[in-house]
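Supplementary Note 3. Input sequence used for the single-chain structure prediction.
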Amino acid sequence: METKIIQGAEPFLLPGGKTGCVLVHGFTGTPKEMRLMGDFLAQNRITSLGIRLAGHATQESDMRRTRWEDWLASVDDGFNILRKSCDRIFLAGLSMGAALSLTASTYLKTNGVIAISAPFEIKKDWRIGIAKPLSIIYPKVKKDRSDTEDQEKAREHIDYPSYPTRSIAELNELLTFMRSQLQNISVPVLMINSKKDQSVPFSHQEQIIFGLGSSQIESLMLEESGHVITEDVERKIVFDKALNFINHH
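The predicted structure, written as discrete structure tokens, is reproduced below.
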């Protein structure tokens, strides 16, 4: 029996040193979108673990069966794997991965969170409230064209071709829970967002920062990147900023 994981979308572990970073991909995404960041951190002596969220990187039907608590448990798994070999552990997530990382930091003994393209909420739509029953009739939602500026990386990107409607309901519940937990986040946080992000308005960064309980908050505003910042034209700026944040804390 062969692996169900899409070729090129496998989770990864890159040894670096006694400081580690759990890299968490986004909604319908795969560990591949965090691989360039993982390579960079490992080259700078940061052990990097790119996890695969439950139901992702295989087939859409797998994702429909998972719940947001399963995705959060995947982050727990990654943290506990690194805890065996690392003295300091950071969480770095993209989009929904950022929401999961922020949420997990309220109960895992992390040293900090790097939240990239973090959403505060789902765009207002009356259908969100009935997404669960609606998913029986409309099981998937078509995706818009990628807003990634780096066309080569956009072509190489691996994700599901559509959004499972049932999973959109789970994402909404996750973000609702995340918002309720922001005040309980006390670890250092680095927020990174782009003005050109077509999925998460830049204003979400301010909304999250306003709710955070942490006294150590840094932020970075990008001008040219799309939503998947870790694969876009300003990724080197992001990686350098993340490395400095980790080394500082």
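The chain has one domain: 12-248. The chain has a mean pLDDT of 96.
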